[in-house]
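Same chain as my last thread, 581 residues:
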Amino acid sequence: MVNLDRRGFLGLAGIGAAGALGVGAFGAGALGRSPWGTWHAGAAELPASFAGTTLETVATPVGSSGYRKLTAGPGWPTIVRGELAEPKSGRDERRKALASLVQLTDVHLIDAQCPLRFEYIAPFNGSAFRPHETLTTQGLVSLVQRVNAVAAGPHTGRAFDAVVSTGDNTDNHEHAELGWFLTALNGGTFIPNTGAADRYEGVQNSGSDLYWNPESPIPDVYKQAGFPEIPGLLGAALTPVTSPGLDTPWFSVFGNHDDSVSGTLPSGIGPLDAMYTGNLKIEVPGSPEEAMSVAMATKSGPGAVLNALAAITSPPRHVTPDPSRAPFTPREYIAAHLDPAQTGPGPVGHGFAPDAAETGIGYYSFEIAPGVVGIGMDSTNPAGFVDGSLGEAQFRWIERTLIEGSSRYFGADGRAVEQSREDVLFLLFSHHTSTSMDNLIPDPAHPLEARHSGGELVALLQRFPNVLAWVNGHTHDNRITPHPGPTPAQGFWEINTASHVDFPQHARIVEVVDNADGTLSLLTTLIEADSPYEAKHGDFSPAGLASLYRELSFNDIHADPARLGGTVDHNTELLLPSPRA
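reply #2:
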């Protein structure tokens, strides 16, 4: 059975092993089915604090086929999940807010004109080209505005203590993209353009039917799917963008796109690095077979990619070179965050230690709120490729940090250990998930250092009752997974949030509360950018471009509706035993 209370909470009778809800789990009455196949509260009066979140309203398509506009649909309720601890009645009146934060992830600010991109492999890898990729900066600024407008957790009213961006902040680890990202979050005006100052030089005016050509009547594959023709869009996308910057201190985590070529190949390969700042851009391969060759080569290494590129028979396009497209190193990424001019709402370095630009250490801990500590991990593998892992030094540092904040934990042998320590609660943040950390190729700079998988990290975290959650991105999906431990005290939640580059373009609020009954709750609420749901083609205002960004991402011919996740992956109350009980 299911109960909908006055706060829009759903209490569930049962959740399947995969975390999916059967239709039979829902009772009749105030619940209805949305066009996306999710469930909403149709009649409950919502608190004012829900405004601006998906508790209030959700982007919903109009119609059932073809190119679809979006509109404001009914919000989603909060699902109570009790896999790790039983919910007890009356906790809403007893609970105390401990922390409130926002996770941004996979914003992928894209220099869509960079010569070293592989758009032409999109038929084999949809993320290689997106029809909305010239509008990523406008989309991020609109999300910043939403975070500032919401300002506090919708359930507790606690002002946000922190914002954490869990990686893939840039798309192709370019200095230009990094500058846009930092300015968007810290505040200021920037021009999201590289190369020629007076024109766009990328695949969207190439005339190739592989791409959406918004300013041309060419019947490309996107227009065949119903995409509109919007004259003037490309020029509008390159005009100055002004961001208010976040009002809340924010922290930065590495993603594979911040550490490798197109998020795949290792950086530092001379011929590839030279292509970034060169004047030749391959837009159309000579044949589908040539495109497939490049697509397969990106999974094999830089040598295979160079050979595949050399075999392309079509002539490249001459574009305006730009040194700001040069790729940054991890140390340069850290140094840019440590620049006093990029402090914004703080803190200086946005998590990275003052000497991190010299040491290259991309992981750190930070206080979210009194008694609540965050751990920012670097799950990227310097050897390249999409998936990640942790080096031995980082893995052991995490273990030491958890021990230092735990009065009781479990040793590797399973035996309980008690010590005199002041307990703190831990939330961990990374780009990769537990199932995407199986890239154990040695770090070229430390070839003898062991690498640790996601499964090993799960086992480590289960030794510490003070670990509440591991928050991550990478998959571009909404998915929340319980990780029960050998004892009830040893479980934690893994909270995976959809990207802001692919639909549904979400960020997630996480509120930590003490229920004063031996349990804690993590209240998770998804939010969308602060732009109109209904885009007006030809509206080139900042809000209009951000609105179009969402609409185009929904209609992308490579869009995957499964990224939305299920009801249990959206707005939730995640219970777990209190380690302080």
